[in-house]
Design goal:
110 residues, alpha+beta, two-stranded antiparallel ribbon, two-stranded parallel ribbon, globular
């Protein structure tokens, strides 16, 4: 949609930024978490994926994971990544439910 057209995706050159901002600027961006190339991250030495809940793993205020997201998470686990979900939600009970659903969905695939 219009929102996706306004956001830049792909690889970014952080070297054009100077000083203190550089470590906080993205190296790459994607519209969907399942577009993130896991093999590329692994080959660059990344071993931990910190994943936001809303609009990354599930829809805003949702609790259900799509099949595509579950498949991507399973692939990440199979490659060897450690996975951690994060959220700035003010509703810790919802985050607990989402976490439990995530664990159940991943274990169903085992």
């Amino acid at each position: 949609g219009a929102e996706e057209e306004m956001t830049r995706t792909g690889e970014f050159n952080r070297q054009v930024l100077g000083g203190r901002l550089r470590p906080f600027c993205p190296v790459s961006a994607y519209h969907k978490v399942e577009e993130v190339p896991l093999e590329g991250l692994w080959s660059r030495g990344k071993r931990l994926l910190l994943l936001d809940v809303d609009n990354t793993l599930v829809r805003w205020k949702g609790e259900d994971f799509s099949g595509e997201v579950i498949a991507w998470l399973e692939r990440a686990k199979a490659i060897g990544f450690d996975l951690c979900i994060l959220s700035n939600t003010r509703r810790p009970e919802r985050l607990k439910r989402v976490s439990e659903r995530w664990q159940a969905a991943l274990h169903q695939q085992d």
